[in-house]
Amino acid sequence: MTGKRLAERIALITGASSGLGAHFARLYAGEGAAVVIGARRVDRVQALADEINAGGGKALAVALDVTDEASIIAAFDAAEAALGVPDVVVANAGVVVPGRAVDVAAEGIRSVVDTNFTGVYLTAREGARRMIAAGSKQSEKGRVILIGSITSHMTAQGDAAYAATKLAVQHLGRQFAQEWVRLGISVNTIQPGYISTEIAGDWFDTEGGKAQIASWPRRRLTDVTALDEPMVFFASDASRQITGAHITVDDGQSL
């Protein structure tokens, strides 16, 4: 026994070139999982895979554009050939095109929807197809984790399309959970609060960003490590009887 909670698990993580995705890759590798880390910025995921492998973990970098179904299929093919069928899929890739609703171009809206909703749908679906074919109904080890956002139940200026897609992701998780509940696949959604990552840029260093932080009950950003325990729990055997759930981890920002 290694004592690691994700030993013998294989996890595929999208959007792993930076931010939450890169953090989840290190977290899962540290808990014993073999990780398949995908993103469009292949140089970054390769560097991360090299780091994990050098540290004694097991990681495979793959090119992955979640807006392209062929790219998703190719990534799963590569994962299966090198490590085996992923039994944990983390649909994390996301983008935001900031601006008031009256100003954001149609192209920007489509970009957000294609990545944050369609990309999540296609990633989870391909993962489920592979898990079912590999016998998830018997093993009950299939895990799909969707990364949402507290903006799914908030209103604000500047991220209407992003927030709407994250609410859609929350409901998509319940839809998938119901469809796959007898096939040994659990589907759950984690809704993080505001964290200082690349997607936020330098917003929280501006006067507007500082004012936003000051408006929250605890007047601070969520620490990325606050996501660690629910992320490991939802990927592990411990969550076998939990599906269709969504959990908010935001240090009270949305209260």
- Pairing-aware structural class of the strands and helices? alpha/beta
* Integer count of domains: 1
**CATH fold naming:** Rossmann fold
Report the mean per-residue pLDDT as an integer.
Answer: 95
pLDDT under 50 segments (min length 5)?
none
Radius of gyration: 18 Å
Number of helices: 8
Element pattern in H and E: EHEHEHEHHEHEHHE
Protein architecture, described:
This is Short-chain dehydrogenase/reductase. InterPro entries: NAD(P)-bd_dom_sf, Sc_DH/Rdtase_CS, SDR_fam. GO terms for molecular function: oxidoreductase activity. It holds the Pfam family adh_short. This protein has helices at residues 19-30, 42-54, 69-82, 106-133, 136-139, 160-180, 207-215, 228-235; strands spanning 10-13, 34-39, 58-63, 88-91, 142-147, 185-192, 246-249. It is an alpha/beta fold and 255 residues long. It has one domain (10-249): Rossmann fold (3-Layer(aba) Sandwich), CATH 3.40.50. The chain has a seven-stranded parallel sheet with strand order 3-2-1-4-5-6-7, sandwiched between helices. α3 (69-82) runs parallel beside α4 (106-133) and α4 runs parallel beside α6. The chain starts with 9 loop residues before the first strand and ends in a 6-residue tail after the last strand. The model has no long low-confidence stretch (mean pLDDT 95).
Please describe the topology of this protein:
Elements (H helix, E strand, L loop, with lengths): L9 E4 L5 H12 L3 E6 L2 H13 L3 E6 L5 H14 L5 E4 L14 H28 L2 H4 L2 E6 L12 H21 L4 E8 L14 H9 L12 H8 L10 E4 L6
Parallel strand pairs: 1-2, 1-4, 2-3, 4-5, 5-6, 6-7
